[in-house]
Amino acid sequence: MNLLATLRIALRALRVNKLRSALTMLGIIIGVAAVITMISVGRGAQARVEEQIKSLGSNLMIVVPGSTTSSGVRLGAGAVQTLTEDDAAAIQRDVEEVQVAAPSMRGSAQIVAGNANWSTVIQGVTPEYLEAREWPVVSGRGFEAQDVSGAGAKVALIGQTTARQLFGDADPVDQEVRIKQVPFTVVGVLDRKGQSMIGQDQDDVVMVPLATARNRLLGTAQGSTLRRVHVISVKVRPGVDMKLGEERVRELLRQRHRLQPGQDDDFTIRNLSEILAAQEMSSRILTLLLAAVASVSLVVGGIGIMNIMLVSVTERTREIGLRMAVGARGRDILTQFLVEAVVLALVGGFIGIVLGVAGSYVVGSLAGWRTELSAAAIVLAATFSAAVGIFFGFYPARKASRLSPIEALRYE
Prior knowledge:
The chain is α+β, with helices and mostly antiparallel strands. It has 14 helices and 14 strands. A hairpin with a 2-residue loop joins strand 2 (68-70) and strand 3 (73-75).
């Protein structure tokens, strides 16, 4: 017998017991659908984490003040401002791996525009900050050299959320806003960034020149004299090893801050590439865990196939004996029952793929989660379902192929 004839016989045998075949396939259907849906949810979560981290900027390191000890009292990270504008300038000038180093200050204030007001984040930045964060201006212009020179101009860039809260659908460019009773002219609107890793709206922000922020909004007398800053955003050149750039920046800052060998850093460098790698690894492990849990349904479905095929071999013992009596070989019987098991698994796998794809969209729309379908996951589920059919169908098929023709014909 050729394979086509064997397939035809297998389909005929499955059609005879439609309900039993459908119930047998149910385990495979649920398993394949669950695997595809869970992998889609896991990949969607992983992609979302990657987007949130990359929204901060690629090849980016964040330098913040570290812990310090004063009169025997240990103070936490950021308790004392140890970074200055000169540190940022030195990093950009002396570390060849660095493309740009942007100092910035951060605070919060109530901003007023006409009859509207809104509490938002105020950041004092330099023009290099937008380059480091890869944050374009979609309307108006960015900061220019004359805006940040001297005491700083009273101009501002606003995020999408702030623009919507203060101006609605109107164009904010060239409009006046007041921050701590100081009038500012909006010169540009920033592109949308979305939420940060901690769920903070990055578009709810107003940026002003760093000198203006220090002298008029966020600084202290001592901080203004020493040109203190809260953060330095360091963008490493493309293709440069982030760890090497981090070490060069650390060496330069220790030298500038006159830290002795063995003395703790008075700053902290956060390498966002390492955070991204760690988040990707945890998301990948979560996806594999979800897929492994869902795969249990496939194993259960395979056991169901084995059970039904054993029942089928017992029911068709006389048929097996008759076929052997007219010349069928053991491998013909083995192939017949193995094809039946594989057909059950493949048909169930196909239905499961359809339900899994639909389930991914349903979960994404109802739960509000991002899902990301993967062709590899679909192929994997289909391949695994066929493998389940072969693995769990082999024993019943082998048992059928080893029956004695005489005993099979005498079976009642």
